[in-house]
Amino acid sequence: MGKSLNGKELGKGLSQRKDGLYQGRFVNRFGKKQTVYAKTLNEVRQKLRNEQYEDEKALNVVAKDVTLDEWYEIWMDTCKKNCRDSTKETYAGHYRRIQKALGWRKLTSLNLLIMQQAINELETDNERKNSKKILVDMLEKAIDSDLLIKNSAKQINTVISKEVKKERRVLTVGETELFFSYAKDTFYYNLYVVAIDTGMRIGELMGLQWSDVDFEKKVVHVRRSLCYFRKDGKYVFEWHDTKTHNSKRTIPLTTRAMEALKKQRVRGQEILLKNAQTAQDEYKNLVFVTRNNRPTQQFIVQECMDVTTRRIQKEHSEFERFSPHCFRHTFATRAIENGMQPKSVQKLLGHGSLQLTMDLYCHVTDDTLFDEMRKMEAV
User: What SUPFAM superfamilies does the record tag this protein with (predicted)?
Assistant: First the structure.
């Protein structure tokens, strides 16, 4: 216990300095000493109680000399608490790229020069853009918490190299016919058909259940997605609600997609019978599974697509590799080319805004350009 200048016991954490000021000290939840001062004993007691209350109720949020690493943990636990685990893991990946250079630094020492140097060390414009984005958000929340007065991360330049921005890959009509002719007898052929005829995301296809397919009404209901990602040091499957409210939708099925789903139904029952002893109840209703009746994953589908692509390239060397998401791009582009109203395409894709649909998924192919120019000849 501390004492006053005349030797009187003042209580735990309280003392009087030689200049007459009273001081109160305690160790906050960050393990750091916090001190208050006042001219009278009653005042310092009140100040100390207030600080301890704020610390206990987490009203003081963070110590003033917090490092970026410490602030990242607080930012994730408070500002991003309600994010999906897969989204949190994405944030963690972006932060790890700059952690070695910046994590140990005091939040208040992060100026534009220091952050720009760290960003410059990253390999691609995309990595720089994502790392800047997380820095901007972290520092903005620090300003809201009265830890900073300025967000210098907003001025970070992310375009360092002269990278040629790749256009989103869209299959031409000819490429589509070529791929599907080669993929005809492959394990995931039915998935490819449903993907390109519905525009569903790969995660939505992975999470599609037979209860979502209405063969009588010829529609499929998109209600969830199944994600596979790293969590607590290991990879796990996790059910998620659809990406946004608009992502929850009903998609009419083409005749080809209906046939593919019927064939997949038969195949799925055969796979389930072969793996009846090991099949997990949680995944028994999935439409697209592996040969072992496990949920499929994007990288597995990609590997199977790559096998088909390599076969094509033996006779058509110009045919380029593409990802499962390319089916979604191609669906939207074909829909627009064939006269579907953009608003309808937006609903089928599950986008919240029409502008997003037009900006991201409506590509003009070379075939369409020639057709449009021929129309000009008649003018």
Answer: DNA breaking-rejoining enzymes
